[in-house]
Amino acid sequence: MLQSQPIRSSLFVPGHKPDWVAKAVATGVDEIILDLEDAVPDNQKAEARGLVRASLEALQADASTAINPMRTVRVNGLVTGETFDDLEGIMCPALDAVILPKVESVEDMAQLDTLLAELERRTGCEPGRVQTTLAMETALAMRHAYDIAVSSPRVNHLVLACGRGGDAARAVGYQWTPTGEETMYLRSKAVLDARAAGIAYPTVTSWWDIADLDGLRRDAELNRRVGFRGMIVMHPSHVAIVNEVFNPSQDEIAHAQGLLGAMAEAERDGSAATIFEGDLVDYAMVSTARELLELAERLGMPAPTDSGK
């Protein structure tokens, strides 16, 4: 499996609107998803392929800046007959990942893998470098997520759709609420399947109300508690809030550093467990603390102190 990167926030940009890309980058978003599917009118899809490739290359050229979002493209689904044309039009060294809509089986993922491998070969791109994101937006995708995720080393991210009135709501039949109790099973299963498949940073799209920022924050906090590491957001104004929620807090970082220090001291005293801030901690908690500090470091947050690693 390719090395994945933390994605706290993802933002769609219509593929035929290249002037929107710079505005998206300016939000501090971790991933820009250039869309060739729903956001592009049918009569502009062919032209949009070239525009998307140009946007990818422009983003790569700016990669030396402090803000360097992951470069992903959502192509049209296999049933449309446009998938290969989309992939052929966008394949270049600047492409990081592809989202294929409505993947429901191992066979669907194998077909995408075959197309990508052939186009990498034709264009001289490094074999296997293009990642794929498994988008869970149908009942079959949700049911078979683990099997699909482990079927290809390209699958490096997973995103669950569980918002209001979209494909997932229609497929499953749930009635959306702001508190999310109707999709808690789906959220928990998505996180479990992702982590079991070795995907460290599962994400979700669940809040589509552009104006309700307080509701967005509550939903993001719920998603983080469940185990997601980020969200696809619907508007640039959502990025800062979601990034903040999914950042390890300073208190969490300090706690993890203190726990590692306490365990290092316990080891020097010949013990494999100790009491830290009222809790019994052992090597399992050490691993969790190190994982949090590694995430904070990868997100560019204050580096952890040497606490007996």
**SS elements, strand count:** 10
Helix proportion: 40-55%
Here the CATH topology of the largest domain equals TIM Barrel
- Count structural domains: 2
What is the first-to-last residue Cα distance?
Answer: 26 Å
Q: What does the radius of gyration come to?
A: 20 Å
- Under CATH, the homologous superfamily of the largest domain reads Phosphoenolpyruvate-binding domains
Describe the fold and architecture.
This protein is an alpha/beta fold and 309 residues long. The protein has two domains: 9-246, Alpha-Beta Barrel (TIM Barrel); 250-298, no CATH class. Helix content is 44%, strand content 15%. The chain has helices spanning 21-26, 45-61, 83-90, 106-123, 139-143, 145-150, 167-172, 184-196, 213-226, 239-246, 250-268, 283-298, and strands at residues 9-14, 31-35, 70-74, 97-99, 131-136, 155-161, 203-205, 230-233, 274-276, 279-281. The strands form two sheets. Strands 1-2-3-4-5-6-7-8 form an eight-stranded parallel barrel, surrounded by four helices. A two-stranded antiparallel ribbon has the order 9-10. Helix 1 links the parallel strand 1 (9-14) and strand 2. The longest helix has 19 residues, at 250-268. The two termini are 26 Å apart. The mean pLDDT is 93.
Compact overview of the structure:
The chain is an alpha/beta fold and 309 residues long.
Secondary structure blueprint with pairings:
Elements: E1 9-14, H1 21-26, E2 31-35, H2 45-61, E3 70-74, H3 83-90, E4 97-99, H4 106-123, E5 131-136, H5 139-143, H6 145-150, E6 155-161, H7 167-172, H8 184-196, E7 203-205, H9 213-226, E8 230-233, H10 239-246, H11 250-268, E9 274-276, E10 279-281, H12 283-298
Parallel strand pairs: 1-2, 1-8, 2-3, 3-4, 4-5, 5-6, 6-7, 7-8
Antiparallel strand pairs: 9-10
Helix pairs in contact: 2-3, 9-10, 11-12
